[in-house]
Every structure is written in structure tokens, then in C-alpha cells.
Amino acid sequence: NVMISLLFAGSNLVSIALGFGFAIAALAYSIGPISGGHMNPAVSFSFLLIGKLDPFSTIAYIVSQCLGAIVGAAALYLCVSNQTDICAGELKEGALLSSNICKGPRIKDADGVPGDWGPPFGLFANVAKDGMNGFFIEMIGTALLIFVVLMTAVSSKGAKSSGNAAPIAVGWAVMLAHLVMVPFTGCGINPARVLGPLVVDSFAGLNCWNKHSWVFFVAPFVGSCLVVGIFAVFETPDKESKAVEEVVKTETGTGLTDAEVA
Q1: Which of 10, 51, 115, 131 is most buried as measured by Cβ atoms within 10 A of its Cβ?
Q2: At what angle do helices 132-149 and 41-49 cross, to 10 degrees?
Q3: Distance CA 158, CA 163 (A)
Q4: Which residues cross the membrane (predicted)?
């Protein structure tokens, strides 16, 4: 979606945000019944923390998500590798190398002087040298996403009220995050989504790893930890859910809940 925006209409923040939001909602509806529709290592990690995933499944999910991101980035590379002038503004000069992949904006240091090229596909930490500004932005953005996921798809109270609309709420959260964060960091909020383009660009001969790349891999998991603590406050079992759990334990004759039996 970022590449299409650059190719046909210039960098359009709204179209980028809508594209990501609708895509996540559609995919969540499609594969949610099969795997839960995580598509994000930070989401899977939060499920591990709340006990909804075991460590082995969490690792399998994260590996699958990263492999999928790499394959997706490779497919995008094949689709746009013949383009030679798709970057706008300051990106036009020197942004496209022989491999024809658009690199991110130049990262500015604390004095505002452009430095190294940022990661590809619009992801960059255009902040001070230590990158902490970008870290907090990515942490808060990911926390927003994880909070919406847990409260609409996992929480007994939230899932009851949202019904089958959780993917829509998650899509809105992704869209909102992109609207706010793209001008600052490019909006990662998904370590797999960041890793895919970086790996593909590395094989294409571009050195897009830089001192700010750690922001996109550390901040989302920190945001997940924070939200899990908040989620524990909201997810206190009510009397009705406790009664249902006791009935299930009695009917199965195992002393286990239906989830534990499965």
C-alpha cells in the first residue's frame, strides 16, 4: 500500500492507514477461526503472558509470522523492482540504488542533520541519536493495538459485547496507529512486518540496518508487557463466568475447564 501510494498519488497518509487497517481486519476475519489471526509477534507474546499460548506454540507462531513477512516483502520486491523513480521529496536523490528498492527517509541526528538512510518501506526513527523518542512512540502504538486485541477478542466481558466485530476494532486500532505514527517512525508496531523488508533488502544488496532498528524489535514487546498488566485489572472473573466454569468442570468429570480439556 505504501508503494502504491508513492507510485500513483504521492505519499498519502490516509490511504496508507486505511490500507493497513482494512487489510488487518480482513485477514483477522479470514484466518482468525483457524489460528487466532495474530499476524504479529507482539500479539502472540501477549497471549503467552496471559496464558493463552504455551511457549512452544508462541515460538511457532512468531517464526511463522516472520517467515510470512519475508515472503511478503519478497513478493513486493518482485512487483516493484522495475520502478526507478517512486520516492518523493528528499528521497528521490540517491534513494533508489541498483536493486531499485525505495529506502526510508534519511535519519536526522539531534541537530537535525540528515544522516544514514533509514529502513525501507517508510520505516525509520526520525528522532534524536539515542532513538528513545521513537521507542516510546512504538511502545505506545503497540500497547494500543494489544489492548484492543485483548479487550475485544480475549476478555470475557469484551468478547461478549463485541461479538464477531473484534477484527473491525483491531483494524481501526491499526489504522489509528498509522495515522498518528507514520510521520514519526513510519509505524512499525509489528516486529515481523519490520523484519521482512529488512531481510529482503539485505539480500538485495542494501544495508538498511541502522542504529535505530532496535526500536522496532524491542518497543512492541515492552508495550505488550505493559498492556498485559492493565488487562489483568480489567479481566477479573465475574460471578457468572465463575459459575459457568464450575458447571463445565462438573459436566466433564475431569475437574478441568473446557479450554483445559482441549
Answers
A1: 131
A2: 60
A3: 8
A4: 6-29, 59-78, 135-154, 166-192, 212-234
Q: Which three cell numbers stand for residue 255?
A: 475437574
Q: Picking from 22-36, 79-93, 140-154, 230-244, which range would have the lowest pLDDT averaged per residue?
A: 79-93
The residue assigned the cell 535519519 is 107
DSSP 118: E
- Cβ contact 23:2 at 8 Å: no
- Would you state the cell numbers that stand for residue 190, as one nine-digit string? 509489528
Q: Where are the alpha helices (DSSP H) in the chain?
A: 2-8, 13-35, 41-49, 55-80, 132-149, 156-162, 166-185, 191-203, 214-234, 239-252, 258-261
Strand partners, 108: 114
Angle between helices 214-234 and 191-203 (to 10 degrees): 160
Residue 86 CA to residue 227 CA, distance in Å, equals 38
Q: Alpha carbon 67 to chain centroid distance? A: 14
Q: Which residue has the cell 542504529?
A: 211
Distance between CA 92 and CA 242 in Å, rounded? 61
Nearest to 35 by CA among 20, 18, 52, 21: 52
How many Cβ atoms from other residues are within 10 Å of residue 75's Cβ? Answer: 12
- Cell numbers placing 64: 511463522
Q: Which of 57, 180, 186, 170 is nearest to 119 (CA)?
A: 186
Domains belonging to the chain, first-starting first, are: 2-261 (1.20.1080.10)
